[in-house]
Amino acid sequence: MINIGDTLPATTLVEFMDTEGNGCSLGPNPVNVAEAAAGKTIALFAVPGAFTPTCSAQHVPGFVAKADEFKAAGVDEIWCVSVNDAFVMGAWARDQKTVGKVRMLADGDAAFTKATGLTLDLTGKGLGLRSNRYSMLVKDGKVVQLNVEGPGQFTVSDADTLLAQARA
């Protein structure tokens, strides 16, 4: 499992772009994790699935609501990672109104999730291999805070906890 002090996995995530801008084309675009995190402070959180109850009602909305506070605390970007395809993450981004606040990054084949060791096997529930729920503060590609949830919990990976850590 990834730990504090470790570097983020050298993988590629995918982001769906609804509008063209900053050299990004419409549709799914690859995001090289190492390049995207270089020189930045990232508030990264991962969820078991897009459009799932806790993720949609609490996890993403918390980070969207606190986006300006994260910026004021020195966070350059907020990333939401989920084992879903880029089209689902794009639709979820529209639903959650994350544009300009949270980057919704798809880990379609779970490469990032497997590399972190933070997998959640929901095969018997019809969801397959997913990401565990967690949050982390990343500086220049290195993990400086890590908050991993226990099974079925949502107590330490929320926006308030990570924001307090970013301010410290």
Automatic annotation (TrEMBL):
Coiled-coil annotated spans: none
The UniProt record lists the keyword Membrane: no
Family classification: Belongs to the peroxiredoxin family. Prx5 subfamily.
Residues at the active site: C55
Catalysed conversion reaction: a hydroperoxide + 2 glutathione = an alcohol + glutathione disulfide + H2O
GO CC term, one of those recorded: cytoplasm
Organism superkingdom: Bacteria
Protein name: Glutathione-dependent peroxiredoxin
Annotated GO biological process: cell redox homeostasis; cellular response to oxidative stress; hydrogen peroxide catabolic process
EC number(s) per entry: 1.11.1.27
GO molecular function: thioredoxin peroxidase activity
Ranges where the Thioredoxin domain occurs: 2-168
Spans traversing the lipid bilayer: none
Keywords: Antioxidant, Oxidoreductase, Peroxidase, Redox-active center
InterPro entries: PRX5-like, Redoxin, Thioredoxin-like_sf, Thioredoxin_domain
Function of the molecule: Thiol-specific peroxidase that catalyzes the reduction of hydrogen peroxide and organic hydroperoxides to water and alcohols, respectively. Plays a role in cell protection against oxidative stress by detoxifying peroxides.
